[in-house]
Amino acid sequence: MVDFFKKKAKNSKDDILSGLTVALALVPEAVAFAFVAGVDPLVGLYAAFMIGLITSVFGGRPGMISGATGAMAVVLVSLVKEGNEMGMAMATPVENMGLNYLFATIVLTGVIQFLAGVFKFGKFVRLIPHPVMMGFVNGLAIVIFLSQLGMFTEKIAGEAVWLHGTELYTMIGLVMLTMAIMFFLPKLTSKIPAALTGIVVVSAIVIFGGLDVSTVGSFIRDGGGSGLKGGLPTFQSQLFNMVPLNWETITFVLPYACILAAIGLIESLMTLNLLDEITNSRGNGNRECMAQGAANIVTGFFGGMGGCAMIGQSLINVKSGGRGRLSGIVAALTLLAFILFAASYIEMVPIAALVGVMFMVVIGTFAWSSFRILNKIPKSDAFVLILVSGLTVIFDLAIAVLVGVIVSALVFSWENARRIRARKSMKEDGTKVYEIWGPLFFGSITTFMNKFDVANDPESVEIDFIESRVSDHSGIEAISNLVKKYENAGKTIKLKHLSEDCIKLLHRADDHLRTVIIRDIDDPRYYVVTDKVKIE
């Protein structure tokens, strides 16, 4: 019992310290994504707080961090722009109407995500092949790395210019110091969170050393924001008055909501899957869908820009020891405390410290083993891995994963379509026997039909499916059509070793087929994927 309480106390300590680290890392990310979407930084920070808190409490993966994300922010750019244009075109022009459309879209996005969880669509993440998962991880690591390079620039006359001279060397030195602390400190002790220690040490050096470097505060001001200081999120009552509930609004909002819902669920479920592998545990995808949906509904009504799981912050959390729900709750509440009480102090944190933390996340995220196995795995898997990595960088996660799954499915179908074989032999009574090997499905039916020589076969033919498996309705139709070809040629055909489900479906296709099927005690048992109507 004593050991149990000691373990709980240690886990709680790790969760709290890890949550504090994540909260610091969330600030520049949420602010940056708000700028990308073209909204005030507080809109991004409120989203990070509300989504992070709700998903930490009700989500399907303890330790996973959610908030405002770049993948969704990119889509919101055109939404806000078009919404503003529609607002100005109204009979009574409305400025910043795009923000109201944004909130309405996020609410609808949440509804779609919640329904996805209700109808248990979360389980489909298990269909994502390992090469796609590895490509996603590598691509995301590259995206995180490239996003941090922007921190090595400064705004001059509205243009981003690379740092140079002393400023650049100071920035690099502070980044390297943060990374060194995160690398070596765990080798000395595991009781102190390395990421939080790195941020605190580098911040102290900058503040007490009077170094002139970019900070969270200067980053916000450079982007056009006024600061982190704000109040509690408030209910956006103007939504019901400002956004007209008509067909034009629905046709404008719905496509964006569907895209955002898909991006949010794919990124969240992929992150959940990755953390499952790291922690050797299993999350609940359907519960996560419902939690993400509920969080976006709330954040839409209370002035947030929406979001989903954040792989970078989730990895920081897990690698810092945060494995429970408490870590995400602490991160969200700490972020709110920053907004309400400690904005001036958080604005003093140097960007270099946060960049160093993110660079260590990149190193820990990238699947370096992929270089070693590229020449050992099938070429198709290697192609999918590289393809998904590239598409993640060029486009976004949702497109990369969807394309990767589609390509993997096509490769799988093609490979299985080539495996169907027919071994031919003759019985003493002159019956020709075709022993079918391999799966019979939509991709292999053409090859299957080409195995038979209806015109030159003898009067009696037997097809044995003992080493085959009829997988779908296309296979059923192929068998039915083959029987008709032989019968139209005036020949006798018999079918052996079909499963009970397959036989029932053949009977439904043509009751006459009962006469050509030979039942045996060693008939296989499997179901055919068709329209799910059970034949009694």
Describe the structure.
The chain contains 21 helices and 9 strands. The strands form 3 sheets. The protein has a 5-stranded mixed beta sheet with strand order 5-6-7-8-9, covered by helices on one side. It has a two-stranded antiparallel sheet with strand order 1-4. A two-stranded antiparallel ribbon has the order 2-3. Helix 1 crosses helix 13, helix 5 packs antiparallel against helix 18 and helix 10 packs parallel to helix 12. The longest helix is centred in the N-terminal third of the chain and has 36 residues. The radius of gyration is 30 Å and the shape is elongated. This is SulP family inorganic anion transporter.
Based on Cα principal axes, name the global outline: elongated
What is the number of helical segments per DSSP (H or I, 4+ residues)?
Answer: 21
- Label the structural class: alpha/beta
Largest sheet report: 5 strands, mixed
Strand order of the largest sheet: 5-6-7-8-9
The residue fraction in helices comes out at 55-70%
| Uncertain segments | 531-536
- The N- to C-terminal Cα distance equals 56 Å
Task: Please trace the helix and strand order, writing H or E for each element.
Answer: HHEHHHEEHHHHHHEHHHHHHHEEHEHEHE
How large, in whole angstroms, is the Cα Rg? 30 Å
Number of strands: 9
Estimate the strand proportion: 5-15%
Mean pLDDT: 84
Keywords: Membrane, Transmembrane, Transmembrane helix
Subcellular location: Membrane
Main location: membrane
Transmembrane segments: 42-59, 101-119, 131-148, 168-185, 192-211, 253-275, 295-316, 328-346, 351-371, 383-414
